[in-house]
Amino acid sequence: MNFILFILISLMLVWISRHTLKNYRSHGFYRFFAFEGIAAILALNEPRWFDNPFSIRQLLSWALLICSIGFVLYAVNLLRNFGGHRQRDDMPENFNFENTAHLVDTGLYRFIRHPMYTSLLLLNWGAFLKHITLVTTAISVTATLFLIATARVEEKENQIVFGQAYTEYCSKSKMFIPFLF
Fold it and tell me: pTM of the entire structure?
C-alpha cells in the first residue's frame, strides 16, 4: 500500500513539475527531487505515525509537522500580500506565486530567505522522526541536500531579478534558520 501511495504522489509531482524538469538550471528542478524524498519518507513512515503517541520522539515530530504547516501558510500569505506579481519570460516554468514583483523582507522573510523551504525541512524531519531507520536517514539527508541546492539556485535567480537589494537582504537574513543558517 505504501508503495502505491508513493507512486501516486510521484506521478502527481511529475505532472506538477513537468515544466521545471526540462530546465536543470531552475530551482524547481532540484525542488522536485526534494519533494520526491519527502514523499518517500511520508510513504515509508506512514504506518508508524501513531506509535507511542506520547513519546518525546513523537511529540517532537508533531511539533515539527505543525510548524511546517504554519510556516508555509504564513509565507504564502506574505508573498501574496507584499510580493505582487510580475511575468517572467526568463523562467516560464515558475509557479505564479514565485514570480513576485517586489522583494519580500517582512514577517518570516525578515529573518529567513526561504521559509517555504524551511517548511519542507520541518516536514521532512518531522516525518523522519516517526520511524528512524538507516534508509529513512539517508532519504532525509538527501532531501535536505536537495533543498539546500534548490535554495542556492533560487538565490542566483533572485540576484538577477532584484540585484543589489537582494544582496543586501542576504546579508541581513539567514537561509533557513533565523540567526543560525
Answer: 0.92
